[in-house]
Amino acid sequence: xxxxxxxxxxxxxxxxxxxxxxxxxxxxxxxxxxxxxxxxxxxxxxxxxxxxxxxxxxxxxxxxxxxxxxxxxxxxxxxxxxxxxxxxxxxxxxxxxxxxxxxxxxxxxxxxxxxxxxx
Length: 119
Prior knowledge:
The chain has helices at residues 17-27, 33-51, 87-98, and strands at residues 2-4, 12-14, 57-63, 68-74, 80-84, 103-107. By secondary structure, the chain is an alpha+beta fold. Strand 5 (80-84), helix 3 (87-98) and strand 6 form a beta-alpha-beta unit. The protein is elongated. The two termini are 36 Å apart.
């Protein structure tokens, strides 16, 4: 299911049929904006298990109606979700809904209008 990308060890390629199907919708130039946003959000939800797999938790006692048990709480510092504008905004919205404790950041990149390369 998961395999590191050959070009960079810090990336993971998600090989899952649902992710591949949704990526096809996102890449299709005929996809209307509303469907693009919805599909981006759905894809982020699918990816969230892997995105958040590295988070560390602390164990604490939780008092339920029947007994005391051990629960898990997010360690500090909380993660920062950094959206690379514009395509990353949909992912950031979905991931922040799953992990509302996360700090939100944005990174904008200006592009050359002719080459479309970052300036």
